[in-house]
């Protein structure tokens, strides 16, 4: 079974290809996804790598956690499932504070 890994503390200049090539040293890489900002299309400093097996994932964690890439020490661990977070659209906190106007401001 494939295991998804979280790769953090990436330089903002690191490419998806560099991450993929690095993790291939530890085993078969099923997929590699560098997370980018949807507005600027620049790296957000982390990625998800799916290894071909649990053994390869364990090898990648032990070999690559703390290793330097782009002048930064990588953080590599097993990815946790995404938690459901309430959306800000319909109540649930946040929102706009301040004064409330009725009608036109002018």
Spans of at least 5 consecutive residues with low confidence: none
What's the number of extended β-strand segments?
6
Shape: elongated
Percent of sequence in beta strands: 25-35%
Structural class: alpha+beta
The residue-averaged pLDDT reads 87
Sheet with the most strands, sense and barrel status: 4 strands, antiparallel
Helix content: 10-25%
Distance between the termini: 64 Å
Strand order of the largest sheet: 2-3-1-6
Can you tell me about this structure?
The radius of gyration is 20 Å and the shape is elongated. The longest helix has 11 residues, at about 55-65. Helices cover about 20% and strands about 30% of the residues. A hairpin with a 2-residue loop joins strand 4 and strand 5 (about 70-75). The mean pLDDT is about 85. The protein has helices spanning about 15-25, 55-65, and strands at about 5-10, 30-35, 45-50, 70, 70-75, 75-80. With about 110 residues, the chain is of the alpha+beta class.
Describe the protein's topology:
Elements: E1 3-8, H1 16-24, E2 29-36, E3 43-51, H2 54-64, E4 68-69, E5 72-73, E6 75-78
Antiparallel strand pairs: 1-3, 1-6, 2-3, 4-5
Brief characterization of the structure:
By secondary structure, the protein is of the alpha+beta class. It has 2 helices and 6 strands; from the N terminus they run E-H-E-E-H-E-E-E.
């Amino acid at each position: 079974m494939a295991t998804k890994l979280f790769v953090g503390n990436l330089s903002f200049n690191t490419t998806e290809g560099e991450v993929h090539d690095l993790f291939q040293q530890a085993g078969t890489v099923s997929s590699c996804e560098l997370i980018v900002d949807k507005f600027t299309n620049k790296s957000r400093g982390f990625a998800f790598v799916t290894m071909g097996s649990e053994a390869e994932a364990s090898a990648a964690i032990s070999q690559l956690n703390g290793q330097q890439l782009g002048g930064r020490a990588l953080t590599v661990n097993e990815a946790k499932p995404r938690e459901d977070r309430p959306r800000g659209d319909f109540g649930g906190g946040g929102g706009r504070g301040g004064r409330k106007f009725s009608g036109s401001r002018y």
